[in-house]
Sequence to fold (295 residues):
Amino acid sequence: MKKVLKKTSVKTKAKKPRAVHFDAISIFPEVFGSYVDASILGRAQKSKLISFKAHNLRYWTHDRHHTVDDKPFGGGPGMVMKPEPFHEALVDLGLRKKKDGKKTAKAKKACVIMTAANGKPFTHADAIRLSKFDRIVFLCGRYEGIDQRVIDHLCDESFRIGEYVLTGGELPAMVMMDSISRQIPGVLGKEESLEEESWTSGSHPPSSELRGTGESRVASRASDNVGARRTRPCGDCSCSCDGCMRPADVSQQPGTGEYPQYTRPEVWLGHKVPEVLMSGNHAKIKAWREGMRKR
Ligand SMILES: C[S@@+](CC[C@H](N)C(=O)[O-])C[C@H]1O[C@@H](n2cnc3c(N)ncnc32)[C@H](O)[C@@H]1O
Fold:
């Protein structure tokens, strides 16, 4: 008698591609749409390799004018963005605790980035490293910038995208999101595209091959940065970082022009505005600001 064979099939579970979620917190959330929905970033969103949400910071205010800024302590031109709306936003995203602003468990695989003209320079090595996080949140400043306590207590890193001052952090957030997204497997389609790009470690031309002193200076500084930072995947380093996603070298140089800015409230989550700024002594305030500027 003929044996009837049952049709069998072996099912293998397809590996779900890794996805990164980006958030931007801004008072102009509408400016992001057309850029992040176009071309490669748009396709990456459709294929669920990345997702993006722009949040209106004013949503986390409680007065009828939805105020996000106030005058700087110690005087000076312009307005400074207040800490509370940024804190509440990060609490709502599940990344910081309401009581003290400390990190939640969910924040472990997330990176909160401050956009700042005096931040450390954003490089290709940073894009590679940051692409390994599950979630990236950009805080976008406007006016004279954001209260220093947000930078000190709510942010993981602070970046500038160039040595110039823009009117807001939205363009820097888009630049960084674009550059980080390219490093997420699947986003470019062909992984080889990443192998020999201008700033891939080791592949950029030596500074002597570049024409013009400006270009050479920038190139040599950038190559110093690449060399100084870790780009290896986790597993072979002995640092106590989070899978090589946090910077190994915390001494990366921030910019120097601007001093820290503070606005109301005087005490926020237990963090006080430096006393000198409350002293009313203009000479002392000026000297303090000069000292902070040079650090
Ligand atoms: C008018 S700027 C503030 C500039 C600040 N008073 C200073 O001198 O550094 C307003 C916001 O734009 C963003 N921004 C400006 N230039 C930037 C740059 N080169 N890289 C990253 N963010 C920048 C920051 O979020 C900043 O808080």
Observations:
- The chain has one domain: 20-189+221-294.
- The CA atoms of residues 101 and 154 lie 7 Å apart.
